[in-house]
């Protein structure tokens, strides 16, 4: 396999709050290759969005502090770059889109102005050229009548169209990495399908690395090449997409897959994961999943499971990997 | 039919020019779950509010056990209302943060004073807490001391307080995490079996609706476009909108990638303030003919649709099949 575009090693992020220190990201390792779609899957509070924000360098500090690890982009640790250097990477090399396009766009400027601004600021493009590029970008994301729509404000677009505008903005400067944080969660399912198709098409054309942050196991199955499952600030399982759905290796992944209702058959009672995800100020000792786990035994309460390499490209941090896999 | 507990006929709700609900006929039978699906703006939440009396209909009838609600007054109306309760979507904003859980669940007894004698109130609330899987001793706690899933259980307990036969659930699990969703869905199913409840289950998540529903109604721009039992809707949809909707839902099985029928709809849902003439779906429909702009299709059984479908060209297309 080619060298990764993005290589996150042992990332730690904590939030220092009055209620205590919340360890939101607790030693995360991730790699993203050119042209690859990596899904980072998890429930609220698992640290998936914080990981993305740490990679982008857009965490609010304080309360958030990156307390350890590296984010290597082309061999350079982004975490050690001065802010002005980092800013260049952020705009040109690594871009991000968010769940809520309405709050990510500036309501008082036209979308054309906001798109053109990118070229004027980062590329020194003339006003007229920048305007033309803005129209091209709206065309690229298939917004009908782009010439006229560049003059519209964000609120004049529908939810799906707004998400297209945000994608246009993120891809304006041809980044190599796109981080998409729940990009379709707020959208209706028919619009979600349109946006996921657009992202896939643009990714193919540009051989871009796509990191998709999501909770939706259906979307992941449709688009991802590899999956990293997160729980309580850690990647607990990482695997190619086919393997993880066919044979999950971590007890959490397995329980999660059994707990979702399916469109393709009616099924019986859903398997329930008892209890709640832990508060990040008070993560259980040993394996963080043990209080909710059907496989848990004494060792799970005492020792943090190491990351077992169970196959090439497959990692699972569970003391009972073999049992979960059924081997 | 005697086992119909809830029925609407030509139910209409307009907000000024916006035709949120525009002629809905539905029937709910005892002990069954009717799923109502549709995308944002289709009118499904307005429908829920109409059913529980949070909105007044612009036209049409709502009959609870045969009684037309608009003709009932005073005690008769209160008794009918008692029979149909609601579980809301957002467990964070639907519970008053300044009230204890005991007061929240017991509040219906303030209005319906004959439901439970005042001295038996605490016991009734504790039984309800127990029924929904919460600790009966927690009745003096406040909503913020509970997680999202637990709060939704509180909302369910409140809905059950007056022993209704019918519960309208408006997106009851969509604000919850996946692992918590299953807990609440199983609870709702268990309560239905135990208490013989009938559910109207409104949701945008077609997988959840398939799981829980006996029958399904698909809404588009204020109207029901197709209805039938869950197998008819999911395995043999005949309305193009239902087919497109189903084909767009991602299925958690990567082996189906590229092997499913994908119908990509163009454009967005038109504004309910100026719905298209004739068939409301025609502007996004690949089957539309000139006649669709003139004649509005009625929801009925058709030559090629064994269950009611509001499309002139209704025809079974198995969008779930694998290639």
Question: Mind explaining what this structure looks like?
Answer:
The complex is a heterodimer of chains A (327) and B (323). Chain A is an alpha/beta fold and 327 residues long. Chain A has a domain at 248-327. Helix content of chain A is 35%, strand content 24%. In chain A, strands 6-7-8-3-9-10-12-11 form an 8-stranded mixed β-sheet, with helices on both faces. A 4-stranded antiparallel β-sheet of chain A has the order 2-1-4-5, with helices on one face. In chain A, a hairpin with a 2-residue loop joins strand 9 and strand 10 (234-240). Chain B is α/β, with parallel strands linked by helices and 323 residues long. In chain B, 28% of the residues lie in helices and 23% in strands. Chain B has helices spanning 44-52, 74-82, 101-106, 108-111, 121-131, 148-160, 178-195, 206-212, 230-235, 240-248; strands spanning 4-15, 18-29, 33-37, 59-64, 67-68, 84-87, 166-170, 198-203, 215-220, 223-229, 300-302, 305-309. Chain B is globular and about 65 Å long. The termini of chain B are far apart. The chains are: A alpha/beta (327), B alpha/beta (323). Chains A and B meet through helix 7, helix 8, helix 9, helix 10 and helix 11 of A and helix 7, helix 8 and helix 10 of B.
Provide a concise account of the structure shown.
Chain A: It is found in: Cell membrane. The complex is a heterodimer of chains A (327) and B (323). In chain A, 35% of the residues lie in helices and 24% in strands.
Q: Mind sketching the topology for me?
A:
The complex is a heterodimer of chains A (327) and B (323).
Chain A: E1 6-17, E2 20-32, E3 37-41, H1 48-56, E4 64-73, E5 76-77, H2 83-92, E6 94-97, H3 101-104, H4 111-123, H5 127-140, H6 146-149, H7 159-171, E7 177-181, H8 189-206, E8 209-214, H9 217-223, E9 226-231, E10 234-240, H10 241-246, H11 251-258, H12 298-302, E11 308-311, E12 314-316, H13 321-325
Parallel strand pairs in A: 3-8, 3-9, 6-7, 7-8
Antiparallel strand pairs in A: 1-2, 1-4, 4-5, 9-10, 10-12, 11-12
Helix pairs in contact in A: 4-5, 7-8
Chain B: E1 4-15, E2 18-29, E3 33-37, H1 44-52, E4 59-64, E5 67-68, H2 74-82, E6 84-87, H3 101-106, H4 108-111, H5 121-131, H6 148-160, E7 166-170, H7 178-195, E8 198-203, H8 206-212, E9 215-220, E10 223-229, H9 230-235, H10 240-248, E11 300-302, E12 305-309
Parallel strand pairs in B: 3-8, 3-9, 6-7, 7-8
Antiparallel strand pairs in B: 1-2, 1-4, 4-5, 9-10, 11-12
Helix pairs in contact in B: 5-6, 6-7
Domain ABC transporter (chain A): 8-257
Family (chain A): Belongs to the ABC transporter superfamily.
InterPro entries (chain A): AAA+_ATPase (IPR003593), ABC_Ni/Peptide_Import (IPR050388), ABC_transporter-like_ATP-bd (IPR003439), ABC_transporter-like_CS (IPR017871), Oligopep_ABC_C (IPR013563), P-loop_NTPase (IPR027417)
